[in-house]
Amino acid sequence: MQSALLLGAMASSGSAEALRVGVIGTGCIGIEHLQNLHLLPHARVTAIADPHPASLSRATECLSSLGDLDGVAVLSDYEELIALPQVDALILCTPNDHHALALPAIVASGKHCLVEKPLCTSVGDCARVAALVEQGRARGALYWCGMEYRYIPSIARLVREASEGGIGELRMLSIREHRFPFLQKVGHWNRYNARSGGTLVEKCCHFFDLMRLILRSEPYRIMATGGQDVNFLDEEHDGRPADTLDNAYVLVEFTSGARACLELCMFAEASKHQEELSLVGTRGKMEAFSPSHGTKTDDESEVNFRRCLRNPAFTSGAWDRTEPPSPEECGTIYEAHEAVDRALLEAGNHAGATYVELSRFVHAAQHGLPAEVSVADGALAALMGIAAQRSVQTGNAVLWSDIMAEYEAAAK
């Protein structure tokens, strides 16, 4: 996509030397970061670390194929990588429950860091890490929570246009993700709530982040229902059955009066779109669609963004018609395709979004700018997922004020 390439040019402009990056964790998302860092002229991978030999081997093969392996330190110990003088910034791509263990050492190093979502898996860990990071930020380090979905081109356009007010006061946001089951991970950590935080934390913190970002409001109450109905029903590891949700509905009421609904299904890979967003305001609606993570070609004839404006005659609140309006009367519909450059599709599984986010992270680190996605943003998205998991488990609505009271107490 042209916008992503322009962002890359922006990130590489000026006289700043290349940011020297160490990647901790070289599983699927770690490899995606390596491939996208290769495309950024003002970033250079200088070290990688992973305790799992097969993952580390795949990462070295990736760097070798890109011509980027020379001079790269290849380590099994992430603490050794953090201490390396040839590393300016770290990308943390380890399993969810490891973030709270690694981040104290990262903050102590004074180095910049992008930590992949979710920030942490518990209220207490989110609170402690956020407080620790705030101290490091005051010393000049950049901390960024990876939320790639903000930067998927069609979704990014919806976010931007929503903030411009063209569809009026925002009232309803629906997010649907219909996708494939969880991929296999080292140690099967994503099969268990205890390590992942639960599906609504691990997978859906992306969507809770988008809810806060788009609606520009904080939650009031969270209600959810879900289950493990299809995936991994007969799967056991070390005598423990897999317990991760594979489908859910989550309803979030916001203090602004807006409502948001998440629909998740993880046995629906036979879908045209992996993500579908529908945002409705008082003067119209917008929709954004994203392809499956496995998509490597971009069909420019495919509509992935739509803006529908109501007939101004219908927006006053009065409705005295006795017959439904014809389609021609309803308003205007604009459709577009937000393109993704083929090189960016080949470099990852998020429709070019990882490249865009990394380019902005690198630019911010080099120029002393604040994070677009703060650790506080990451904490709040994870907390919404934790609240949703609790609602599924108890069958009761969860008040955001209760979650925040627990969070604030843990931060002390």
TrEMBL record:
Coiled coil stretches, renumbered: none
Domain Gfo/Idh/MocA-like oxidoreductase C-terminal: 164-397
Protein name stated in the entry: Oxidoreductase
UniProt GO MF annotations: nucleotide binding
InterPro entries the record matches: Gfo-Idh-MocA_inositol_DH, Gfo/Idh/MocA-like_OxRdtase_C, Gfo/Idh/MocA-like_OxRdtase_N, NAD(P)-bd_dom_sf
Domain Gfo/Idh/MocA-like oxidoreductase N-terminal: 19-135
Alphabetized Pfam families for the sequence: GFO_IDH_MocA (PF01408), GFO_IDH_MocA_C (PF02894)
